[in-house]
Write a structure and sequence with these properties.
The complex is a heterodimer of chains A (833) and B (96).
Chain A (H helix, E strand, L loop, with lengths): L20 H10 L3 H14 L3 H20 L3 H15 L8 H7 L3 H6 L13 H6 L1 H6 L2 H5 L6 H4 L1 H13 L2 H9 L10 H10 L4 H8 L9 H10 L3 H10 L2 H11 L6 H13 L5 H10 L6 H10 L7 H8 L4 H15 L2 H17 L3 H15 L10 H13 L4 H13 L3 H14 L4 H13 L3 H14 L4 H20 L3 H14 L3 H14 L3 H13 L4 H13 L4 H8 L9 H13 L5 H17 L7 H13 L3 H14 L4 H12 L3 H4 L2 H17 L2 H11 L18 H7 L5 H24 L2 H11 L3 H15 L5 H5 L30
Chain B lengths: L3 H5 L7 H14 L6 H14 L2 H10 L6 H9 L9 H8 L3
The chains are: A mainly alpha (833), B mainly alpha (96).
Protein name (chain A): Tetratricopeptide repeat protein
Organism (chain A): Candidatus Accumulibacter vicinus
InterPro entries (chain A): TPR-like_helical_dom_sf
Chain lengths: 833, 96
């Protein structure tokens, strides 16, 4: 024990306050000054052997011993505890003495606590026996011979040892037999659950967990129980628990889990990774597996292979460690690695090489899957017509390799149809139908393809086949009705009223809404010019409201069937004199939205007649959202006259709404507003821009910015210098002479996308596509590469011919067109059509 | 990456039927109202490997990030549980 001189201690009692030695000793003890307290109580006991002073001395010794034990000085603590027992007449076995003995490995001494001569003052109780059970079990026979013959520790020891032996042989039956020999009150009782659970950890962890849950924590076999508790945990949790075990415990757990000796350090490394609490990086995993690849199972090689796209440089190392990779597999890994780096062009070439190799390796399905994956990678959800035909051929080739993929058939049909390549769409439909003759989805695509090609009879035949399979398909029923209507229009156009009548009869069988049936009647009226047809025409007009909406249908249908719209309108005689009600205007706008782009000429003709009543209706009582919806429809159709009427009325009603400011100015000046608007309008736009920014209306912000032109060009300071009426002409005159500067100016005005858009117009696919791939999706890089190409191409040309070409060639730089609108929540749902 | 084969407890060569059986057993064991997270992972795993085409696509294109469980499973797939050796067990109990 250390006898180092302690520094002077502050006294628990203030100086000058007289206290008795007994009180002083108590105060020192309470203050935790055990060494001093021991001396004080010893002095007191020299005067008189009082029991309370003995207790004080014992408490001082106990405090001092625990103090030493807490510093790891167990041997010194044991000596102090023995002094306590000798001088104060206390039992050795009480308190932490036994734990300290076991921790110092003094098992014999611990067992002697149980013998009558070991400690005369000790009461041998069941608790002590339980605490010594593990010691008794592993102690030599000679050590346990000193125990009393009737001691449970001695009586059940052989059975417990036999149970351990059975457990270690994996003999469950014998284990059960032996465990039955250990009574419920035996100090070895915990072994009944622990040993059984130990055997079940690997094969039935749930049952093992149930058994180990019945063992109290900190029992005599806690080290063994802790191993079982760790072993029954699922997934990575057992690894984390492994780290909490001591060296022997770890070895035992890895042993019962079946971990080979040479993989234990790898497991511990994985456990350390798990302890970090964050998922390991792929490169770290690859590194770990390659570093310790010897003897690893195939699953480890598989994981490593799957992570190689993150560590493509380790490809050779992988092959050294786990064996060679197939050529196609290497290409797959390189393709994914390139894709991960964003090098789309490299990725594409690796994937295509993999396709070739898989095809020759007689793995056509893999090749087909890669081609489809590549299509999705390059084209994705974008419009396939923006890409060259090669992308579409990937899908076609994939179907040659794997013709059973219905989804790809459908995708290909839609792609051809959307790209207006109806011949290819029909061929794809035929291929798909040959394989999926009775598939509703394929039949529906066939119907739509037939309709797109005006093959109405074929469409109806296919639709009826589809209805046989799916009788309640309302979409198909509507499609059949519309197909008959379209066919009827065709017959009217060819002056075959009887054939048209038959088609309309058939259409009426399928048309579900009164509105559609009225249109059918209207077509009957248009199919002839006699009195009965006129009656039908007027009946239809009446059913359609007799006013603006009816006039819309008469005009549109007469154009569709090749009649004179003005004459037919006079014959139908709708009433266009009053102001149309808002509901009618909204219905007409809905109908405008439903019109295809191919009918824009017809729309223009119809609006030429209806412009006046629609303009009158602009003053009507529309809600804000209705008015915005009308304006957006008119904007999308570039109907600026009507747009101005509705936008101006909206601006008068909601002057604070930035969108109406934008719409009104756009309607007045169009895309050239940048050059044409007045100072007052510019200020109004700036105010609207500020308000839109405050409102968080990003869509309007972008639109206004586009309309106002490039930053600084139209700034307030220079506004006096600009010529509102002829701004664009001056601008062109001021263009720099160097072509590169022209393009840079173009970038400053319209951004990189404007350069790319322009280049797409003038460059053939064969020149544009390789650059697009080389840019790997980087628009800025692509714009720069295109400029280089264009500058080279134009080096020998006269720049003035570039700026104002008579026809074809490079277009004039122009103010940026309105960008695609950005979704703004407040305008969401207004433009469904 | 959450290895779908590990989630469903099937091996790489398992047939469609075996995988479906494992999937049904797993969702019976962890219905959504009891363990939503586990249910979702089981369903995702099943969708990734439910048929031959999907299994091939998973093998070709999946390069999602690994978890510790994936790593542990990969390096311990050949472990065969063993009974403890008596010497080690007794040493753990304190034998010298």
């Amino acid at each position: 024990m250390s006898r180092k001189h302690r520094p002077a201690l502050s006294r628990p009692t203030p100086a000058g306050t007289p206290v008795s030695p007994e009180t002083h000793a108590r105060q020192v003890l309470d203050a935790g000054l055990y060494r001093e307290a021991i001396e004080l109580y010893k002095n007191l006991l020299k005067q008189e052997r009082r029991s309370e002073w003995l207790d004080g001395l014992a408490a001082s010794y106990a405090g001092r011993a625990k103090e030493l034990a807490s510093k790891g000085m167990l041997q010194e603590a044991l000596v102090v505890w023995r002094n306590r027992s000798t001088l104060c007449g206390k039992s050795l076995a009480e308190g932490p003495y036994l734990d300290w003995l076991l921790r110092t490995g003094a098992h014999d001494a611990a067992l002697r606590l149980l013998t009558p001569t070991g400690d005369a003052a000790a009461t041998v109780d069941a608790d002590l026996e339980t605490r010594l059970a593990a010691v008794a079990l592993t102690a030599p026979d000679s050590a346990t011979a000193q125990l009393a013959a009737d001691s449970p520790l001695r009586r059940h020891r052989a059975t417990a040892q036999a149970a351990i032996a059975a457990c270690c042989r994996g003999d469950l039956a014998d284990l059960d037999e032996q465990l039955r020999g250990i009574p419920f009150r035996s100090p070895y009782r915990d072994l009944r659950f622990i040993l059984k659970a130990l055997l079940l950890v690997g094969n039935d962890p749930a049952q093992a967990a149930g058994l180990i849950a019945r063992v109290t924590v900190d029992g005599p076999f806690e080290r063994l129980a802790a191993v079982v508790r760790a072993g029954v945990l699922p997934d990575r949790r057992w690894l984390l628990a492994l780290l909490d075990l001591d060296e022997e415990g770890r070895h035992l757990l890895l042993e019962i889990k079946g971990c080979p000796e040479n993989r234990r350090s790898l497991l511990l490394e994985v456990a350390e990774l798990a302890r970090a609490g964050v998922p390991p990086t792929p490169t770290r995993v690859v590194d770990l597996l390659l570093r310790r690849s010897r003897g690893l199972p195939a699953t480890a090689a598989r994981l490593c292979r799957r992570l190689l796209p993150y560590a493509e440089k380790r490809l050779a190392e992988y092959q050294n460690a786990f064996g060679p990779l197939g050529e196609a597999e290497s290409e797959r890994i390189l393709a994914l690695a390139a894709q991960r780096r964003g090098a789309t062009n490299h990725s594409e070439s690796h994937w295509l090489r993999a396709v070739r190799l898989f095809s020759t390796e007689e793995a056509p399905l893999q090749a087909a899957l890669i081609l489809r994956y590549l299509f999705d990678l390059i084209v994705g959800d974008q419009d396939a017509s923006d890409y060259d035909d090669e992308c579409t051929t990937w899908l076609e080739r994939s179907l040659e390799l794997d013709p059973d993929d219905r989804a790809t058939h459908l995708k290909l049909i839609r792609l051809h149809r959307q790209g207006q390549n109806l011949k290819a769409a029909r061929a794809s439909v035929e291929t798909a139908l040959a394989r999926f003759a009775n598939d509703p989805a394929v039949l529906l695509e066939a119907v739509e393809t037939a309709l797109a090609g005006n093959a109405f009879k074929k469409a109806v035949t296919l639709a009826k086949r589809l209805l046989d399979l799916d009788p309640i398909n309302s979409k198909v029923r509507a499609l059949i009705g519309r197909a008959h209507l379209s066919h009827a229009r065709k017959q009217i156009r060819l002056h075959r009223p009887e054939a048209a009548g038959k088609e309309l009869d058939l259409a009426d069988e399928w048309l579900a809404t009164a509105h559609e049936r009225s249109v059918s009647k209207l077509l009957r009226g248009l199919s002839a010019a006699d009195a009965s047809a006129t009656v039908l025409l007027r009946e239809a007009v009446g059913e359609l409201g007799g006013k603006l909406l009816a006039a819309w249908h008469v005009l549109l249908e007469s154009i569709r069937v090749g009649s004179q719209p003005a004459g037919e309108l006079r014959r139908a005689a709708p009433d266009l004199s009053g102001m149309p009600v808002p509901r009618e205007v909204l219905t007409v706008m809905h109908a405008i939205n439903a019109l295809g782009e191919n009918e824009s000429k017809a729309l223009r003709t119809v609006l030429d007649t209806l412009r006046a009543p629609l303009k009158r209706a602009a003053a009507g009582d529309f809600s804000e959202s209705e008015r915005i919806s009308i304006c957006e429809t008119l904007l999308s159709r570039e109907e600026r006259v009507l747009l101005q009427a509705y936008a101006d009325a909206g601006l008068r009603r909601w002057p604070e709404r930035p969108l109406f400011v934008y719409l009104a100015i756009f309607a007045k000046h169009g895309k050239g507003a940048f050059f044409a608007m007045s100072e007052r309008e510019r200020q109004a736009l700036e105010g609207a821009l500020k308000k839109a920014l405050e409102d968080g209306d990003q869509r309007t912000v972008l639109r206004i910015r586009d309309l106002m032109g490039p930053t600084g060009y139209f700034s307030g300071e220079d506004s006096d210098d600009s010529d509102d009426d002829d701004g664009f002409g001056d601008f062109v005159d001021d263009l720099p002479a160097n072509p590169r500067d022209v393009f840079n100016l173009l970038i400053s005005m319209g951004g990189h996308n404007e350069v790319i858009r322009m280049a797409r117009e003038v460059l053939p696919d064969s020149k544009f596509r390789p650059l697009e791939r080389a840019a790997g999706g980087n628009r800025k890089k692509l714009a720069e590469m295109l400029i280089e190409l264009l500058v080279e191409s134009l080096a020998n040309l006269d720049l003035s011919s570039l700026i104002a070409p008579p026809s074809g060639g490079l277009p004039k730089p122009r103010p940026p067109a309105p960008k695609q609108p950005v979704q703004d929540d407040r305008q969401k749902g207004l433009f469904d059509d | 990456m959450i290895d779908p084969y590990r989630v469903l407890g099937v091996d790489l060569t398992a047939s469609d039927e075996t995988i479906r059986a494992a999937y049904l057993a797993a969702i019976r064991e962890s219905p959504p109202e009891r363990d939503r997270e586990r249910f979702e992972s089981v369903r995702t795993a099943y969708e990734a490997i439910c048929n031959h085409r999907r299994r091939l696509a998973h093998a070709l294109f999946d390069c999602s990030l690994p978890t510790i469980d994936d790593l542990l499973s990969a390096v311990s797939s050949d472990f065969v549980p063993q009974p403890p050796t008596e010497r080690r067990l007794l040493r753990l109990l304190g034998a010298k």
